[in-house]
Amino acid sequence: MGRIEFHQVTKRFDNGMEALKALSVSFDEGSMCFLTGHSGAGKSTFLKLLLRLAIPTRGQILINGVNIVQLAQRRLPYYRQGIGAVFQDHHLLAHRTVYENVALPLRVAGMRERDLARRVRAALSRVGLLEKERLYPRHLSTGEQQRVGIARAVVNRPRILIADEPTGNLDPALSQDIMRLFEQFNEVGTTVIVASHDLALIRSMGKRIIELHNGELRHDSLVASVADAAAGGGDT
User: Fold this and answer.
1) No. of H helices and E strands in the chain?
2) pLDDT tens sequence across 171-212
3) Most CB contacts within 10 A, which of 110, 122, 150, 177?
4) pTM of the full predicted structure?
């Protein structure tokens, strides 16, 4: 699982507002992309549809050719195991240690304790927090809490990793550190999609940027670069 395709996807809410309007866009397996746009542009709705927390009013969403809009309810937990999700509010459990917060998805999946411990510590090591596994969230900085959220998102080794404004509460230096973490996961083959309004930060990453405006695709840097290359080739 890793290739993502949105085909003419529209999402209309009960109040008549259309969060997405006939959106068509695709992401290759192992790619990294940033979603940007004004508040209410459709970024969060896009990610909720990808997680199947919402269903489009019209259109298809394909993951490696499978239309997830038609997935049976009983198959959703298995489907979501393949997607790691990080949010601005990391939703850590205050009464659980760092280790237990990261272990939670594996416990839900019924993993054996020996395998679980190895997987949790590997995830914590990736985000630089292995030495703090016994601490509680209140003992961590905001940036460290966000990294625990990322470790929890990747502990299942998902093929797709999505994030919704993951640096919204962080200062510029910490924001860059978090973005580099996402880049590192992408470098080992994970498809990464990050929604962010921080244009300066995401432009500095040198990755594909998709801009949404009122639920529609306003700009796609990948399409623009291909068009520019084609135009340049025609001049030779």
Assistant:
1) 8, 10
2) 899 999 999 999 999 999 999 999 999 999 999 999 999 999
3) 150
4) 0.90
